[in-house]
Amino acid sequence: MLSPGALAADWATEQIALDSPKAESDDPDDSGEQSRTGRLTQITSRRVRAGGDFPIELQQAPTVKIDVREVQLRNTETVQAAPLPDPVELTGDRAAVATTFSASASPRELGFRAYLAHTGLLTGRQFRVVVRDRLTLAQSLLFPLLSMLMFKVVLGDAVGQATGQNSAYGTVPLVVLVGAMFGSLAVGTRLISERRTGLLTRLYVMPVHRAADISSRVNVELIRILVSTLVLTTVGMLIGWRFNQGLLPAIGVFAVALLYGAAYSTIVLTLAVSGSNLPLVPIMSLFTSLLMFFNSGFSPISAYPEIIQPLVRNQPMTCAIETMRALATGGPVAESLTKTVIWAVGIILVFAYPALRGYRRAAASRN
């Protein structure tokens, strides 16, 4: 079977032959060597090869315009696709045919069971990535620790005298939440890097549940927040932090930190997979700094100007700090806990769907 290029050349030669008068060769040795065009002498003859004198007809050969679409049409009509062989005849086994030529692939990447299985596998992958990134892991722990010591040394006595309570009950929840927020920035920058290198695209075309990868990133972030909260509260006992209300309120402190971290991670992941190429670290660092210095853990609410006191009192970080303080020391917890849950659940509901849609676009493009 000739290729399309060979068929096109053959057809062009036939067209030239129809428009050119036939000529006979004057060399008896060249019998049978005349080209199909009549006028054009083949350069493969013995006389032409020996003398190297190409005839003038070859240099003045007429040109014919070739319609490529017509050539393609002729090629399609003349070349028929060979029928596929019968798989039963090839294998001799109908059971083997079912595995070799399946009618439809089973949707292994769909369903809740697939989601749980794939999320577990990808969570293990993300956990190994975080553990190997020792610099980022150390930074997510050292920065909150240094901040806690600095707040205690610089502002500890002033805050304690103003509130009549040990400042550690405001400082420790503050640095726990700050550590959760700064750690989420590392997750966002890692996601941007994997998008630009094409790793997200590789994961997206594999038979993996679409929500498994982004869920695994949130899971690893929750594990990191849990570990950092345990470390920070343990070190906080050196400056006066205590779990005075028993085991269940202590578990509640960790639950509040996890809920707050999950909400903040959802925001970071949404911005990381957005196609606007926003500078993630500068924007979120500024947002984190504003929350860190305008809350009840940094300074009593009464110390802020009256015009911004309602904002400071009801912002999500203050609600979480007041909840953790009440769980550790005792006191009214219903109002602050309700506000914390509303903030966290509302943020997750608002940003979860854009995060999934943005992840799909990010997997299809590296920009």
Structure in a nutshell:
This protein has 367 residues and is mostly helical. Helices cover 69% and strands 0% of the residues.
Q: What is the topology?
A:
Elements: H1 4-19, H2 46-51, H3 56-59, H4 68-78, H5 87-91, H6 94-100, H7 112-132, H8 134-163, H9 168-197, H10 199-205, H11 212-236, H12 247-272, H13 280-293, H14 309-314, H15 316-329, H16 334-364
Helix pairs in contact: 1-4, 7-11, 8-9, 8-11, 9-11, 9-12, 9-13, 9-15, 10-16, 11-12, 12-15, 12-16, 15-16
What is Rg? 38 Å
- The arrangement of helices and strands along the chain is HHHHHHHHHHHHHHHH
Q: How many individual domains?
A: 2
Q: Summarize the biggest pleated sheet.
A: none
Helical residue percent band: 55-70%
> Between the first and last Cα atoms, what is the distance in angstroms?
44 Å
What's the average pLDDT?
76
Task: Work out the number of β strands.
Answer: 0
What share of residues are in beta strands? under 5%
Name the assembly state. Answer: single chain
Low-confidence stretches: 20-44, 96-106
* Anisotropy-based shape: elongated
Q: State the secondary-structure class.
A: mainly alpha
Tally of helical segments: 16
Can you offer a commentary on this structure?
By secondary structure, the chain is mainly alpha-helical. It folds into 2 domains: 4-78, no CATH class; 112-364, no CATH class. It has helices spanning 4-19, 46-51, 56-59, 68-78, 87-91, 94-100, 112-132, 134-163, 168-197, 199-205, 212-236, 247-272, 280-293, 309-314, 316-329, 334-364. Helix 9 (168-197) packs across helix 15, helix 10 packs across helix 16 and helix 12 packs parallel to helix 16 (334-364). The radius of gyration is 38 Å and the shape is elongated. The two termini are 44 Å apart.
